[in-house]
User: Fold Phospho-2-dehydro-3-deoxyheptonate aldolase from Roseateles subflavus.
Amino acid sequence: MTVDVAPRAPGFVSELLTPAQLKRLIPCGATAAATVQQARQGVRAILQGRSDRLLVLIGPCSIHDCMAARHYARRLLHLREQWGQELEIVMRAYLEKPRTALGWTGLLNDPFLDGSGLIAQGLEIGRSLLEELNAMGMPVAHEVVAPASMSYLDDLLSWVAIGARTSASPVHRQLASGLGMPVGFKNGVEGQVQVAVDAIQSARHPHSFLALQPHGQLGVYHSTGNPDAHLVMRGGTRPNYDADSLAAAAAQLRAAGLPEVLVVDASHGNSQKDHRRQSFVCADLAAQISAGNAAIGGVMIESHLAAGRQDLKPGVPPAPELSITDACIGWEESAELLRLLAHAVRARRSRSRQPAAEAAC
Ligand SMILES: O=C[C@H](O)[C@H](O)COP(=O)(O)O
Ligand SMILES: C=C(OP(=O)(O)O)C(=O)O
Assistant:
């Protein structure tokens, strides 16, 4: 650890490395950079309709234990290789959490899980973990909550989300317009899809906005627009993964002149936060994909080494393998769902290769 633990008093400002200093301290090595570049290309090809594979964003709701994250990534890497013809698997390595009201806000903000808020250490620990996962060959996804954090992590991320609580935020839309990786905008917490469609339109256009520069000063960034901003259907007060809801969302994208490509989140509003329902959602999506639905470009799954969740208790170290935010499905079920989705992609592929008359039978 290179940054001293600073005393905290109201109004005290802790020192922070600049993005350039942190990137020098923890550089993105050649292997990690190649992982990021290949995964971004793979995801882009899916979003742009040049690949019939399926993007799968799978992993813990939040990372709270780096050893467990490495362990999970090692297991997932086998399946990424096994299903590489069908699936572009990217691990959820979410380091920030947006909360409905209060709660732990993620490893970047509170790495020691005790409310001490040591963000300088969180950035070092988080960057180091992401570099290591990429160096293993596992590309990673993250949700951007604090826009400034992207100046520290952007080179290590293959996909990022703008979540249901921030899709309407102009600052997040502007940021997305200048990011170098595909960005998924989630529908609003109540289920509003139009807010995400508006966000995608905004992020695909150039903006000029305030951004943290490599050497720590604020600058005006002139973005060119992000051509790979897309929609993530995560449900709301009711699920929206069913064929009718997805067709309605595709129509909203079409009306806005946007590509009809959807990532569907099996968790959150689509599972009504009951992790056991994620397998039903995935089974339904697999059936839609097998039946030829080409608009489904990706699926998100909240998964950990062990099923369920735990509450954080002061002074008690949490179990490493169990989520401390949303409940996740466990490892065995995760592997089974990846198999199911890979077979659905094969079925969609063989269907699309059939002559039209035969396919209509
Ligand atoms: O994905 C995680 C949660 O759904 C999100 O951070 C909100 O959590 P909360 O409603 O428990 O605060
Ligand atoms: C917070 C998340 O999702 P949402 O924005 O859909 O609630 C998440 O994916 O971790």
